[in-house]
Fold this protein.
Amino acid sequence: MPRYAILAHPGHNRVYFEQSQSFWLAELALLGQALSSPPEETEIRSFGGIPYIAFSSAPLTGKDLSLLSRLSFCYALFSLGETSRGEACLLPLSKSPPFLEDSLSAMLKYTGKTNELFTRMLVGVAAATSAFDPLEKLSLLDPVAGKGTTLFEALQAGYDAAGIEIGDKVVAETYHFFKRYLETARYKHAASSQRVSGPARSFTALKYDLSFAKTKEEYAAKGSLHTLELVAGDSRHAPQFFPKNRFHLIVGDLPYGVQHGNVTAEKQSSLTRSPAALLEACLPGWVRVLRPGGALALSWNVFVLPKEQMRQLLSSAGLTVQTGGPYDRFEHRVDQAIKRDIVVAVK
């Protein structure tokens, strides 16, 4: 059986890189379920003092290469061979390029930003867990969107993306940033905004819409359009912003209780540091807009919300929490105040 190796992405920061090898294997195990032949004999192997992720598989198809190219840690992909002297050698394989340029999610810099490669893994784990093909044009909602790292990772994967964030200024900045990106890249696009209000004005929000295509021909064929929707509003009202069963994936990086907080009450003027309060208030709405078979993936700080409590919150909302195997291998230390983990659940 052929053997392959993946060179890890050098964009990982030092702390993240040193801890991430265990969940490289977890990510590969989950995505590998969609390969024509699931990977076997997976291990971390050193070539020239550099760690690679090595695995065996039936000969990789074009679709397999596209799937492996989605792995957050996949910087380069090789087939393992031998020289005439029996020494191991690496034979490069072609990666599939992202739908939008790979650096899009890294362009915006700000305090408290989550590593975009970790975010890419979060999106990939959700897609691999859902009942849908990760290579199809899925729709993703980030209900705690911040400045859009998750949304840009979804767009790079060729998905449609939508985000909700409580701050008007933050959402406007994200909208104008991506609009300028489309203009600079000369993508055919259309942009609009509208004020959204509920019954008796129980809620109000500003919604931005961007639709785009790489060419005029694709733009004219409406089925080829990609979209980014941004809502400056309260995430509890997700069903008022989007139709029921709209999204294949819901992916979010919850406030860690250190740099960022959230608002969970209608008249609350200050930020709470509790992700539990956020989930209790918002999960019913999030579940409503998630399709049957869709997956929800959240990262959070275990120090402020224990894992069992997190899983119970999702189960109580009617979701099936995924446990065991690779799903239990994502916990890692970010700094002294943050131990991050991922929870994944299916509707």
User: Anything to note?
Assistant: The longest helix spans residues 14-31. Confidence is low (pLDDT under 50) at residues 258-271. The longest strand covers residues 290-301. The chain is about 30% helix and 30% strand.
